[in-house]
Amino acid sequence: MRVTDTGASVALVATGALLLGGDHVDVALTVGPGAWLEVVEIAGTVAYDAAGEASSWTVRASVEAGGTLVWSGEPFVVADGANTVRTLDISLAQGATATVRDVLVLGRTGERGGAVRSVTRADLAGHPLLAEDLDLADPVDRGLTGVLGAARVLDTIAVLGRRLAEVPADAPADPGSRFELAGPGTLLRSVRSETAGSPLLGVWPGVRAAALS
Predict the structure, then answer these.
(1) Is the pLDDT confidence value at 171 over 90?
(2) d(Cα 32, Cα 19) in Å, to the nearest integer?
(3) Taking the model in full, what pTM does it have?
(4) Mapping DSSP to helix (H, G, I), strand (E, B) and coil, where does residue 182 land?
(5) Which residue from 6, 70, 109, 151 has the fewest beta carbons nearer than 10 Å?
(6) Handedness of CA 171, 150, 138, 115 (dihedral sign)
(7) Cβ–Cβ under 8 Å, residues 44 and 73
């Protein structure tokens, strides 16, 4: 989409329907020292009804010293009957950063959504920075108060390798919506009943621009 002497913006485009039962997508990328890479998802991804047959979506990224990765994600929708695992594994060298927008949607309109497990791992200079497992396979358990309740959308912005210096004016103000990691990193998260209600829609452009600057 765009190329400079130090980096590029590339589009991630599916050439067919996915994820179907038995599909296992594995994306691996490396950002070199001092380089930048933006990955733009052109459209959302749907894990379709597969009558419980397993599928997976895995992204493994390595960002070398002084490098910058920005991943502009679109909704990942888990349809009724899906059974999928999503994994994001990011390895950062000292001075490297990654900024990721991730939107997980349970079910299409009128659906409750199938089974999904979302796994996120990030390390910085060989030391753990973020480890999060969201086991949302059981629709009864995830509907409990204190888990998701009636919510269907988890919208997350992860800033890794640096802290988000300022809370944007339109960032979510709900308690528990911002998390500072023990190391350099910040998570913003909005849990809503629909994607249109997420305040992170307005936050992401500014966070993305700051990361790419």
Answers:
(1) no
(2) 30
(3) 0.93
(4) coil
(5) 109
(6) negative
(7) no
